[in-house]
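<goal> How does this chain fold?
<sample>
Here is the protein in question

***
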Amino acid sequence: MLEDPTFWVAVAFLIFVAAVGKKGVDAVNGALDARGKAIGAEIKEAEKLREEAQHLLAEYKRKQRDALSEAEEILDHAKLEAQRLTAQGEKDIEAALRRREQAALDKIAQAEAKALQEVRNQAIDVAMAATAKLLKSNLDNEGLNALVDDSIGNLSQKLN
C-alpha cells in the first residue's frame, strides 16, 4: 500500500483537501464573522433608531395632548367671549329700543302740544272773528269808540 501510487494520490488529495479546506473554512468563518458583526451593528442601529422613534412618539403624543388642552382652553374662552358679546348686544339693543321709545314718546308729546296750540289758535281766531262780528252787529260807532277808549285806559294798569 505504501508503494501503491493510488494510495499516495489519495493521501496527497486528503492533505490538499485538508489544507484548502482549512483555508476555505477560515475564509467562510471570517466571512460569517464579518457578516455577524455587520448584522450586530445593524441590530444595534435599529435598536437605537427604535428608541429614538419611541422618544419622538412620546414627545409628539405630549405635544398633541398639549395642543388639545390649548384648543379646549381657546374654545372655552371663545364661548365665554360669545356669551359676553351676546349679553352686551342684548343690553345695547334694549338701550336702543328705550331711546327710540322715548324719542317716539317725545315726538307724540310735541305733536300733541302742536295740535293743542293749533286748536287754541283756531279757537282764538274763531272767538275773535265772532267777537268782531258781534261787536259790529251790536255796537254803533259811538259804542265802539267808547270801548276803544276804555281799553286804552285800562292798558296801563294791565301792563304793570
